[in-house]
Write a structure and sequence with these properties.
mainly alpha, Helix-turn-helix transcriptional regulator, Cro/C1-type_HTH
Length: 113
């Protein structure tokens, strides 16, 4: 089953024992906005600083949470912009050749261990 941004933060909040109001206060956001995030009903993905604050307060990897929210961490966005000419070809090759994409992902995962 695919994990959604909202489901992940809701479960992490509950695991930490926070109410929505308590966590919203820590994040300096309105609890109704947090509710929309948890229910995957926000009109737009939260800003990177809100996501990073969520991750820190809930002990979730910040960059993974940013990607799950549908955003790209700023430092990666900067890298992609610096290499903008090569990125379409790389992404196209990964989409057209799932085996190549899987090898790339496996290599990255093994380096992270």
């Amino acid at each position: 089953m695919e994990q959604s941004f909202g489901k992940l933060i809701r479960q992490a909040r509950k695991d930490k024992g926070y109410s929505q109001r308590e966590l919203a206060k820590l994040l300096d956001v309105d609890f109704t906005y947090l509710s929309k995030l948890e229910n995957d009903r926000a009109d737009y993905a939260p800003k990177e600083d809100v996501i990073r604050s969520l991750a820190r307060n809930l002990d979730i990897d910040e960059e993974e949470l940013i990607v799950l929210a549908g955003r790209l961490p700023q430092r990666y966005e900067d890298f992609l912009k610096q290499n903008y000419k090569a990125m379409p070809a790389l992404l196209r090759r990964m989409r057209e050749n799932p085996d190549f994409a899987q090898k790339v992902f496996q290599q990255v995962a093994s380096e992270g261990e």
